[in-house]
Design a protein that fits this description.
With 562 residues, the chain is an alpha+beta fold. It is built from 15 helices and 17 strands. Helices cover 33% and strands 20% of the residues. A hairpin with a 5-residue loop joins strand 5 and strand 6. The protein starts with 17 loop residues before the first helix and ends with a strand.
C-alpha cells in the first residue's frame, strides 16, 4: 500500500492545546482531514538534526523534477490486496446461477508472454495490532505504566480536580496576619485588660485554624475514600474493559511510547473535551450544508470506513461566504467539523481485534491551498492511510519543502496521485463498487433510478491495453433476464453489446451497436436483456488510444418465466 512518493498532509502545522482552538479558528481556510499526532515530529521539527548523508539525500530529492514526481505511479504492497495480474483470459462463476464470465482480449496480434515487472516499493505503513499479546515487551510495559498512571488519576480525581480557590488562600493568610498582630500587641507595654483581650483573641484564632485544618483533612479523606471518577474518551470509558487499551495505545503510539508524554496528552485531551463540551456537541443539530465537503462513503479492501474531504467545494463563493465570512460562522464550521469527526469515530470498533481507524481520501482539485490544523492533537492515530488525489503542482512543491521535517512513520501513511492516476490509485485500496461514481467507481446513492445495484454488489475491473479490444463473455445456461452496468474510466473508447445464441443456425442479436464514448458522456452504461435461449452475452470495448484504460463491470441474473 505504498507509493514511490509519500506525500504530506495538506497542512503540517500541529494543533495547539485546547485554549488555542478558540484563538486559531479564525485562520481556518478549509476543512482538515483527520490526522494523527505523530511523535511531536512537526511540533518540535525534529530536534535531532539530520546527518550529512541524509541531508545530501534530501537535497537530491528536492532537485528532482516536480513534473516527474507527480507522474510517478504508486506501487502496491504485496501484503495488502494487490490488483490482479493481467491475463489473456479470465473466467469466473456467477454466484446466483451457473453463468460463466470470460474476458477475452482481441488485439488481432499473436499473444506474447510479457515479463513481470517488479514494483518499486518504499516502506509502507502497516497497522500495528492492538492485542496486548502482540505487543513487544517495551510496548507492554509502557501500556501497564500508563494504565497505572491513569488509575491513580481516576482514584484521586485528577482529571476533574480544580486548583485551590483564591478565597481559601486569602483567608489562611489573613488568619496568619491576625495572629502575628495579636502577638505583637500582647508583647507591647500596655494594660492588663489589653493583654487579656489579646490572649482571648489569640485562642479564638487557634481554634479557628484547627477547625479549618480538620475540615480540610476530612475532605481529603472523603476524596480518598470515594469511588474513582469515570472518564470517557470517544465514548469509551477508561479502564473499564479492553477497549480502553486500544484508546491508550493510540496516545502511546502518538508519543513514541513515552509514558509521561502520553499521559500529559491524555490529560490535555480530556480537559479540551470538557472545555469544548464534546459530549453535548455530538447531539446538536448543526445542519447539513457541508455534507458534500466531508462525507463517509463505503469501505476500503481491509474494512476501514472511507472518509472523503472535497476541498474544491469551497470554490463555490456562496458556500465559502456562508462558512467563513465572519467569526460566528467560522466557529460554527469548526463545531460541525468536530461533530462529524466525533460521530464517525464513535461508530468504529475499539475492541482489540476491531477496526478503529479510518481510510481518508483528500480531493485536492481546485483546493485553495494549505490551511491550519485544529483537530490533530486531540484525535491521535485515527488514520490508517491518507490518499491524496487530483494533486496539483503546488502540492508537490509543498511536499518537497516539508518532507524533511516528517518522520518515516508519517510519510509511510501517505499516497498521492495526479489527476490521470487518481481512479487507478483508489482501486488499489478500495473496490470499484465502493468508490463514488465521481471518482471513477460505480457507487451511487441507492434510489429509484438505480434499483438493481448497490454498494454490496461486487464489480470486476480489467485493464484494457492500448490499441486493443477487450470482450467480456457472459455465458447463459438458462432463461433469464440479464442486467449489467459498465464503465471505462475517462471513456475515449467504443462500446458494443450483443447476444450470440448457442444454436448453430441462429443469428447474433445486436443489443447495442458500436458506439464511441467520450469523456463527456454518461460515466456508466446500464442495460438489460431478456434471454430466451442458451447462448452468451458479449460486451466489447475497443481502445484505440495509446493509453491503458480501466474497464469496470458487474451484472445480475434475474429469473424469467414465459
Amino acid at each position: 500500500m505504498a507509493e514511490e512518493s509519500s506525500p504530506p498532509p495538506p497542512v503540517l502545522e500541529q494543533a495547539t492545546p485546547s485554549p488555542a482552538i478558540e484563538k486559531d479558528k479564525e485562520d481556518l481556510a478549509h476543512p482538515e482531514p483527520v490526522e494523527e499526532a505523530e511523535s511531536q515530529a512537526v511540533k518540535e521539527k525534529e530536534e535531532v538534526p539530520p546527518q550529512p548523508a541524509a541531508a545530501a539525500e534530501q537535497k537530491e530529492s528536492r532537485s528532482s523534477s516536480l513534473a516527474a514526481m507527480i507522474e510517478k505511479e504508486e506501487s502496491f504492497s504485496p501484503t495488502a490486496h494487490p490488483p490482479p495480474e493481467e491475463k489473456n483470459e479470465v473466467t469466473e462463476k456467477s454466484a446466483a446461477t451457473n453463468e460463466e464470465v470470460a474476458v477475452v482480449p482481441d488485439s488481432g496480434k499473436e499473444k506474447q508472454v510479457e515479463e513481470k515487472k517488479v514494483p518499486q516499493t518504499l516502506v509502507s505503513f502497516k497497522e500495528e495490532s492492538n492485542a496486548v499479546a502482540d505487543l513487544s515487551d517495551i510496548e507492554g510495559r509502557a501500556l501497564e505504566e500508563l494504565k497505572q498512571l491513569v488509575q491513580e488519576a481516576l482514584s484521586s480525581h485528577q482529571f476533574s480536580s480544580a486548583p485551590p480557590k483564591k478565597e481559601e488562600k486569602q483567608s489562611a493568610s489573613a488568619i496568619q496576619e491576625t495572629s502575628k498582630t495579636e502577638a505583637l500587641v500582647s508583647d507591647s507595654d500596655v494594660g492588663t485588660e489589653m493583654k487579656q483581650s489579646a490572649e482571648t483573641q489569640e485562642s479564638k484564632v487557634e481554634k479557628t485554624t484547627k477547625k479549618e485544618s480538620q475540615e480540610v483533612a476530612k475532605e481529603g479523606q472523603k476524596v480518598a475514600s470515594s469511588s474513582p471518577e469515570e472518564v470517557t474518551i470517544w465514548g469509551i470509558p477508561l479502564l473499564k474493559d479492553d477497549r480502553s487499551d486500544v484508546v491508550l495505545l493510540k496516545f502511546l503510539r502518538a508519543r513514541d511510547f513515552k509514558v509521561k508524554d502520553a499521559f500529559v496528552m491524555i490529560k490535555n485531551t480530556i480537559q479540551w473535551r470538557r472545555d469544548f463540551k464534546i459530549d453535548e456537541l455530538v447531539d446538536e443539530d448543526l445542519g447539513d450544508d457541508l455534507e458534500k465537503v466531508v462525507f463517509m462513503h463505503g469501505y476500503d479492501r481491509e474494512g476501514h470506513p472511507v472518509c472523503y474531504n472535497v476541498y474544491g467545494e469551497f470554490q463555490n463563493k456562496e458556500l465559502y461566504q456562508k462558512t467563513f465570512s465572519d467569526e460566528e460562522k467560522r466557529s460554527k464550521f469548526l463545531r460541525w467539523r468536530i461533530q462529524f469527526l466525533e460521530r464517525s469515530i464513535r461508530k468504529l470498533d475499539f475492541s482489540p481485534g476491531g477496526i478503529s481507524t479510518i481510510f481518508q481520501v483528500n480531493d485536492l482539485k481546485n483546493a485553495p491551498g494549505p490551511g491550519k490544523k485544529e483537530l490533530r492533537t486531540n484525535y491521535p492515530e485515527f488514520v490508517a492511510k491518507q490518499v491524496f488525489i487530483n494533486v496539483p503542482w503546488w502540492y508537490v512543491a509543498f511536499y518537497t519543502m516539508m518532507s524533511p521535517f516528517m518522520t518515516q512513520r508519517t510519510k509511510s501513511k501517505f499516497v498521492y496521485a495526479s489527476p490521470s492516476k487518481s481512479a487507478e490509485t483508489l482501486f488499489k485500496y478500495i473496490s470499484p463498487e465502493q468508490v463514488p461514481i465521481q471518482y471513477g467507481g460505480l457507487s451511487v446513492d441507492y434510489c429509484d433510478c438505480n434499483p438493481e445495484f448497490t454498494i454490496a454488489d461486487p464489480a470486476t475491473d480489467i485493464t484494457v491495453k492500448p490499441a486493443t479490444k477487450q470482450t467480456v463473455e457472459i455465458i447463459i445456461y438458462e432463461k433469464c433476464i440479464l442486467v449489467w452496468e459498465l464503465r471505462v474510466v475517462g471513456w475515449e473508447v467504443s462500446y458494443s453489446a450483443e447476444f450470440m445464441p448457442e444454436a448453430k443456425d441462429a443469428y447474433t442479436i445486436i443489443i447495442t451497436k458500436p458506439t464511441k464514448m467520450s469523456p463527456t458522456d454518461e460515466p456508466v452504461v446500464s442495460n438489460s436483456f431478456k434471454v430466451g435461449e442458451l447462448g452468451k452475452i458479449l460486451l466489447t470495448v475497443d481502445n484505440p488510444t495509446s493509453k491503458k484504460k480501466k474497464l469496470l463491470y458487474r451484472f445480475k441474473i434475474n429469473p424469467f418465466s414465459d
